[in-house]
């Protein structure tokens, strides 16, 4: 079934907002201009634009037109356990993944300590570049213990979700701790994320545990500073006072 025209236009406008074609604060073309550009009716344009208004990417200004409200993606994984694909799809963003490396290796002292393994233990190393639409958003390197997950060696992580595959193997992540830093992009990271060298990046270390406190995941993720912002949901009730940042 062919998707409605307004959905195509909505996605195209969203990507132009995210890639900076329409920077934050600019006025997008008027309905008549967009209708002519896409060869559709004004009501079709109106529906696509209204959906982006409802999502917070556009804002209607009286006597001025429709303005780009923000071009940053609200990231909420700081207080929920959810895969990247799940979170982006919930925001109406299409995702793709490039697997830059997936192999087994002997754990370094740092990786072994963070996975609660003996130094030199065999681990999976998975390096992925994640996109929202055509825009690279995050570069993430994930380490997993090899012994309980050996059959994951043949998986294609451009097509499957890591968290979903862990759940299938009774190793679902049920608790995470994350450490946030701000770092400057080096030459390699800047090239992959398409940002200038030394641009600020949000740099997260994630420690993910399955039931019983089994450490399953240690990830290092570099998020672009120009396309992301993060929401921290802090509950001061007595049962939730284990939240902290370090």
TrEMBL record:
Domain (HTH gntR-type): residue spans on this chain: 3-71
Protein's name in the database: GntR family transcriptional regulator
Pfam families tied to this protein: GntR, UTRA
Matches recorded under InterPro entries: Bact_HTH_transcr_reg (IPR050679), Chorismate_lyase_/UTRA_dom_sf (IPR028978), Tscrpt_reg_HTH_GntR (IPR000524), UTRA (IPR011663), WH-like_DNA-bd_sf (IPR036388), WH_DNA-bd_sf (IPR036390)
Record's signal peptide: none
Sorted UniProt keywords: DNA-binding, Transcription, Transcription regulation
Transcription keyword on record: yes
């Amino acid at each position: 079934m062919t998707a409605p025209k307004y959905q195509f236009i909505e996605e195209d406008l969203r990507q132009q907002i995210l890639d900076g074609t329409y920077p934050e604060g600019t006025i997008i073309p008027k309905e008549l201009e967009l209708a002519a550009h896409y060869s559709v009716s004004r009501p079709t344009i109106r529906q696509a634009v209204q959906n982006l208004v409802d999502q917070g990417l556009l804002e209607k200004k009286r006597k001025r037109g429709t303005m780009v409200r923000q071009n940053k993606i609200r990231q909420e994984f700081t207080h929920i356990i959810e895969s990247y694909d799940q979170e982006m799809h919930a925001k109406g963003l299409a995702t793709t993944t490039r697997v830059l490396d997936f192999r087994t290796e002997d754990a370094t002292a740092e990786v072994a300590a963070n996975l609660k393994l003996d130094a030199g233990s065999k681990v999976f190393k998975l390096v992925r570049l994640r996109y929202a639409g055509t825009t690279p958003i995050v570069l993430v390197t994930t380490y997993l213990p090899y012994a309980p997950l050996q059959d994951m060696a043949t998986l294609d992580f451009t097509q499957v979700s890591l968290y979903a595959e862990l759940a299938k193997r009774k190793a679902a992540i049920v608790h995470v701790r994350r450490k946030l830093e701000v770092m400057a992009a080096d030459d390699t990271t800047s090239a992959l994320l398409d940002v200038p060298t030394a641009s600020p990046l949000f740099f997260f270390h994630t420690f993910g545990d399955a039931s019983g406190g089994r450490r399953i995941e240690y990830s290092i993720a570099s998020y672009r500073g120009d396309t992301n912002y993060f929401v921290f949901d802090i509950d001061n009730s007595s049962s939730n006072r284990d939240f902290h940042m370090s």
